[in-house]
Amino acid sequence: MAKRTIIYAEDNDDMREITTELMKRMGYEVHAHENGQLALEDVRARTAKGEQLFLLTDHNMPEMTGVELVKALSDAKIRVPTILLSANDEVNSYLTEAGVADKVDRVMMKPFDLRLFTEALATISAKHDALLPKGPVDFATRADAPYAGRT
Fold first, then answer.
1. pTM listed for this prediction
2. 95 in a structural domain
3. What is the largest CA-CA distance in the chain?
4. Is 137 domain-assigned?
5. Alpha-helical segments (H) within the chain
6. Cα separation values, 127 from 39, 82, 97, 120, 147, Å
7. What local confidence, expressed as pLDDT, does residue 131 receive?
8. pLDDT higher than threshold 60 for residue 122
């Protein structure tokens, strides 16, 4: 099985470095960005090539918040499994107001519990794997492929 790819958006340098290292040790390939705009560009480029990936994003960031990132992906018809991290307990209402609450697989409050974080990644990975078709598939052209980028 190919290594799972995570696009990670976090503006705090220390948090980004520590969490990136943790996910790499867990076996993920991680592409970390300092804001949502850079993560959006990366997700667009990778899903256009048919890459399967996950999104882990902070909410409160410069350039583009996590909710704005999820909304931009939704508007572009790009669906990737997503975990939204936030220290703001009102983030669920922001997701609802933006009309994208159903586009986030998990919201986790910061600071997050390491056990719950690893469980969330494992759950989303398993859910994602169960939805993928068995055998070779050209995800770039198959319209009904789950999480194929554009659905």
1. 0.80
2. yes
3. 42
4. no
5. 13-25, 36-48, 66-75, 91-98, 114-131
6. 23, 12, 26, 11, 11
7. 53
8. yes
